[in-house]
Amino acid sequence: MLDEHDHRALGQRLDLFHLQEEAPGMVFWHPRGFRLYQLLEEQVRQRMRREGYLEVRTPQIYAQPLWERSGHWENFRENMFLVDDGGRQLAVKPVSCPGHIELVQRMAPSYRDLPLRLCEFGLVHRSEPGGALHGLFRLRQFTQDDGHIFCAEEQVQEEVVRFAQSLREFYASFGFDAVQVAFSSRPPVRAGADDVWDKAESWLLSAAKEAGLDCLMQPGQGAFYGPKLEFVLKDRLGREWQCGTIQLDLVLPERFDLRYVDASGAKVRPVMLHRALLGSLERFIGVLLEHHGGALPAWLAPEQVVVASVGEAAQEYAQRFAAKLREAGCRASADVRSESLSRRIVDAHGAGVPWLVVVGAREVEAGAVRLRQRDGAQRDLPWDEAVAELVAACRRASDA
């Protein structure tokens, strides 16, 4: 039996998603859950556009030679799903990095194009052991808000500082104010020479210092291609969750012979920064659900307002009010069932709906509605005033 605060139990109660044996480690998103998924995706996409990223889409499967070139075949093969293509080995991608490098190769950038920022909602697959799977926290199929910055050496510090500053503001909008940072250095099994790692670690530490980050040191925990900064959130129960990351990579640009043309016309190797705000959209949703106990902020709730009618005479009025809210941008529906009002209040609360609007004969006659909040507080307001208040309450604060 799952604890009622477990994200898997919350997912069932709120009708968001389910998992089943026929697709181990993969999520069936219900309409309400997929709306939450899309809301999260929209927030990331808006921020990426503001920060100058170009969104791309890359293939799901690559042949063995590409993975050998990237180093994943040697260092990550046990975590990859392999496909036999008539004697040729293919692998379903566990990361989007090689695809982005291939795009940059075709783009053939000059120094004027740098920093070049690419992003992708990359659907990835990793062959996790069955016993390690854990709801949305540990999956075999998930989506990374993957991004890569290709820049000149002198641009590294500014890009890392910019990312770190943006991330704190982003997390705060979801209710996470406590953010810790860890610095993960070279692992025992890695690609690249020690002098390359010395340079990468030095540059990333210097950038972290410039950003004012107080880093917990994690020796040996870096990626096989470079050191990384990991951003750790603390939820309302004091638990820590590693979400965002930025990694400094001098290895893959060398392995792929990636170059840009500088001001003198010379071909120069760029620095590659791997970065993610959330890491995994699915995992972040699980963290969000447990952090808020299923009572998501109104701007994130898949359904923001339910308009419940009392008596047949108020049904059409309730439907018109819900339609007005939808026109104004709210996610609203009318509940005109014959169930008791108390039953419908319980249902709306159980579904995590922040606002319940009640309309009966008296409200119809007065051209008003009764607003009911999650905590049970109630107020009567005229139609137009109620619409304006609900629209404002359902909007993200930073969008107001």
Would you give an account of this structure?
- This protein is of the alpha+beta class and 400 residues long.
- It folds into 2 domains: 286 residues, Bira Bifunctional Protein, Domain 2 (BirA Bifunctional Protein, domain 2, 2-Layer Sandwich); 95 residues, Anticodon-binding domain (Rossmann fold), CATH 3.40.50.
- The protein contains 13 helices and 20 strands.
- An 8-stranded mixed β-sheet has the order 3-7-8-15-12-11-9-10. Strands 17-16-18-19-20 form a 5-stranded mixed β-sheet.
- A hairpin with a 4-residue loop joins strand 19 and strand 20.
- The longest helix has 20 residues.
Beta content comes to 25-35%
Low-confidence stretches: none
Q: Please state the second-level CATH architecture of the largest domain.
A: 2-Layer Sandwich
Summarize the amount of helix as a percent range. 25-40%
Distance between the termini: 42 Å
Q: Name the CATH superfamily classification of the largest domain.
A: Bira Bifunctional Protein, Domain 2
Rg (C-alpha, Å): 25 Å
* Total count of helical runs of at least 4 residues: 13
The CATH topology of the largest domain is what?
Answer: BirA Bifunctional Protein, domain 2
Overall body shape? elongated
Total beta strand runs: 20
Give the spatial strand order of the biggest sheet. Answer: 3-7-8-15-12-11-9-10
Mean pLDDT: 94
**How can the largest sheet be summarized?**
8 strands, mixed
Number of domains: 2
User: What would you call the structural class?
Assistant: alpha+beta
What top-tier CATH class of the largest domain fits best?
Alpha Beta
